[in-house]
Design brief:
Elements lengths: L19 E2 L2 E2 H32 L12 H9 L7 H12 L8 H16 L3 H12 L1 H18 L6 H25 L8 H29 L2 H21 L8 H8 L4 H6 L4 H24 L5 H8 L4 E2 L2 E2 L8 H22 L6 H25 L9 H28 L5 H23 L7 H30 L4
Antiparallel strand pairs: 1-2, 3-4
Helix pairs in contact: 1-4, 1-7, 1-8, 1-9, 4-7, 4-17, 5-6, 5-7, 5-17, 6-7, 6-9, 7-16, 7-17, 8-9, 8-14, 8-16, 12-15, 12-16, 12-17, 12-18, 14-16, 15-16, 15-18, 16-17
Length: about 500
């Protein structure tokens, strides 16, 4: 492929400067702030999505938010069938769910659309990874993804273009997500002990953006107008692209370029080399871990779906006499991540010095168990808070605290693991495969969420507990066989 010789017109000819900030390459912080703004845009939009559909877009929506003009709400609510593609989407979902006995209420409809959107956001990175590995390289593909996502956010301000906007966001994220994460690993040589720490720092950037997005996008959307919230998400995406572009000289060359240079061969020759037995074992280990990871994300993603509904319908959000938008609930998870990611990083370093740090797979199992146990708090909440009452926000906040500890034990560790054991010529594609587990998990989250008003709340949250703990036990059981198969600690 002759195009591979010019994989990245934006990349410098040689490696980036070797200067460091706080013990890490400067490029890490360029990627940190780029991802921060991209996640600001994603979570800002996600914060509003279910509420926007229930209160504004779907047929019969009352538009009872004081901040939205009654005329605008009436037009959107009564005219949802004029949204491009809405009739087809409703017919398909109604046909499917007739076979699983879920009434297609507005809540179920919004839950399914939410699940499909967040699922496909994580489906397309697999193909975005292939695009980078085979054609454009990581850098160019990031540019393409960022531009497409910015367009999608701004289209969200137009109700009739709701589904085309989601399509732009889905495709753009597929190009952006796997390739920005891959570049974090490319900053470090093989065996560099700082790589896990780098992904923990990078993960803090993700969640710093997620902290501010409910405050900015959620507040604007609920208290000023939906299009203001979606527009703010688009501005955040453009800010991330600007940081990436002006800091590009600090970023590493693409993976294939680095590998080929190290072995003194052309990119094309490196790409054509057959996979070794050890590489195949690493790939199959990732496939297995991704399959189990599906269940984690199915439970975790209830934050933006059924837990947001609990926050909206069954929680009093009052502080010092001031009423807060229920969408602010979603900022607690990223706040806890930013507070406790450094603590866990130090804790793991302390364990490592004593030879007691768990393997990556064991950490992921711990993460799943913590996720499942967190929903026992919501089981108790469902017993205490009557369906027509509003309870304390501390039920949700304490659940999110434990859930976040579980996330920190699984998500950044998984990202780091992908860059450690993936073959160089497939690293972006396999990073996309890692996100593919979130595709199935997010769709499963929407499917499970459809039962929120069908089951009792106590039974629903008990189901989430069983799913989380069960997947954790599978991780624990798989640790020794995987380590034996690959021949080293993973």
């Amino acid at each position: 492929m002759s195009s591979m010789k010019n994989m990245d017109a934006f990349a410098p000819a040689g490696p980036p400067p070797q200067g460091e900030w706080f013990g890490h390459p400067k490029g890490l912080y360029i990627l940190f702030f780029t991802e921060m703004w991209e996640r600001f845009s994603y979570y800002g939009m996600r914060t509003l999505l279910v509420l926007y559909m229930l209160h504004y877009l779907l047929p019969g929506a009352q538009g009872d938010w004081a901040n939205v003009t009654s005329h605008g709400a009436h037009v959107a609510g009564q005219g949802a069938m004029h949204v491009v593609g809405y009739g087809t989407m409703y017919a398909l979902l109604a046909w499917f769910f007739r076979h699983v006995d879920i009434p297609m209420s507005n809540q179920a409809m919004s839950s399914q659309i939410y699940g499909l959107y967040t699922a496909f956001v994580y489906f397309t990175p697999f193909f975005g990874g292939i695009l980078a590995d085979r054609l454009f390289g990581q850098r160019k593909t990031v540019y393409v993804g960022g531009v497409l996502m910015a367009i999608g956010h701004f289209l969200m301000a137009v109700p009739s273009l709701f589904f085309p906007a989601l399509l732009f966001l889905i495709v753009g994220n597929g190009c952006f997500k796997p390739n920005i994460s891959t570049q974090v690993g490319l900053l470090y040589p093989e065996g560099d002990h700082r790589r896990d720490s780098a992904f923990t720092i990078f993960y803090m950037g993700i969640n710093l953006g997620a902290i501010f997005s409910p405050l900015v996008c959620g507040t604007l959307g609920q208290l000023v107008g939906w299009h203001w919230g979606f527009g703010a998400a688009g501005v955040g995406m453009l800010a991330g692209l600007a940081i990436y572009h002006f800091g590009r000289h600090l970023l590493p060359p693409d993976e294939l370029t680095q590998k080929a240079a190290a072995e003194h061969v052309s990119v094309e020759e490196e790409q054509k080399k057959p996979l070794t037995s050890a590489e195949w074992k690493g790939i199959w280990a990732l496939v297995f871990l991704c399959a189990i990871n599906v269940v984690f994300w199915a439970v975790y993603e209830q934050q933006g779906n059924t837990m947001q509904l609990w926050a909206d319908q069954n929680t009093r959000w009052v502080l010092l006499g001031l009423h807060m938008p229920s969408s602010w609930f979603q900022m607690y998870n990223p706040i806890f991540i930013c507070l406790f990611a450094p603590v866990l990083d130090r804790f793991w370093a302390w364990q490592s010095r004593r030879g007691r740090e768990p393997s990556s797979v064991t950490k992921m199992g711990i993460g799943c168990v913590l996720l499942g146990v967190s929903f026992l708090i919501m089981v108790a909440a469902a017993r205490v808070v009557a369906p027509d009452q509003k309870g304390s926000p501390f039920w949700l906040i304490s659940t999110v605290f434990l859930l976040t500890m579980g996330e920190l034990y699984l998500s950044p560790i998984g990202l780091s693991l992908v860059t450690k054991i993936s073959p160089a010529r497939m690293v972006s594609m396999l990073m996309g495969m890692w996100f593919l587990s979130s595709f199935f998990g997010n769709y499963l989250a929407g499917f499970i969420g459809g039962y929120y008003n069908v089951m009792t709340k106590e039974a629903f949250f008990t189901l989430l507990t069983a799913l989380g703990v069960g997947s954790g036990l599978i991780f624990f059981a798989a640790n020794r066989p995987l380590r034996k198969s690959i021949g080293r600690e993973i």
